[in-house]
Amino acid sequence: MHHDQTYTLSSIEDVDGLPLAIIDGQSKLKLELDRSDLPEGMPPFDVKLVKGDLQTQVMFDLSRNEAVGRNSIQTTTLDITIRTPNTTITRRVQETLQTQVLRIEEE
Predict the structure, then answer these.
(1) H or E segment and range at residue 29
(2) Cα angle at 77 between 74 and 81, to 5 degrees?
(3) pLDDT by residue for the chain (107 residues), tens digit each?
(4) Alpha-carbon Rg of the chain, whole angstroms?
(5) All residues at 6 or more sequence positions from 41 whose CB lies less than 8 Å from its CB, including other chains
(6) Backbone angles phi, psi at 90, to 5 degrees
(7) Lower Cβ count inside 10 Å, N or C end of the chain?
């Protein structure tokens, strides 16, 4: 999956005395298949990205000039079609991935 993320400053907040910039990011995903490592004799198939979105929110500590947290949600819908001599199989795969990173302690 490839994407170009666009970031926008949505707010500046004070959290327990820390000035935090809240930055939102959004992008549309693009699917580029690399068929170079597929085994020989594999039946022909197509994969189509029906929907692909990535939303990110970054919390940036303005007093230290560093990111202290991030929340990302990626949603994808793929249509996969496999053709054999006797039949065609189509499967729709929907997936939502959420990742969170948060600095909770300093050393």
Answers:
(1) strand 18-30
(2) 145
(3) 788 899 999 999 998 888 999 999 999 999 988 888 888 888 888 999 999 999 999 999 999 899 999 999 999 999 999 998 899 999 999 999 999 998 776 65
(4) 20
(5) none
(6) -120, 135
(7) C
For the record, the structure tokens of 16 come out as 């327990």
Instruction: Say if residue 57 is exposed, middle or buried (CB neighbours under 10 Å; 0-12, 13-18, 19+).
Output: middle
Question: Two tokens at 20?
Answer: 């935090």
At 57, list the tokens.
């929110």
Q: How do beta strands 88-102 and 66-83 pair?
A: antiparallel
Q: Which tokens sit at 10? A: 């949505």
**Both tokens of residue 12?**
């500046």
Give me the helices (H) in the chain, please.
Answer: none
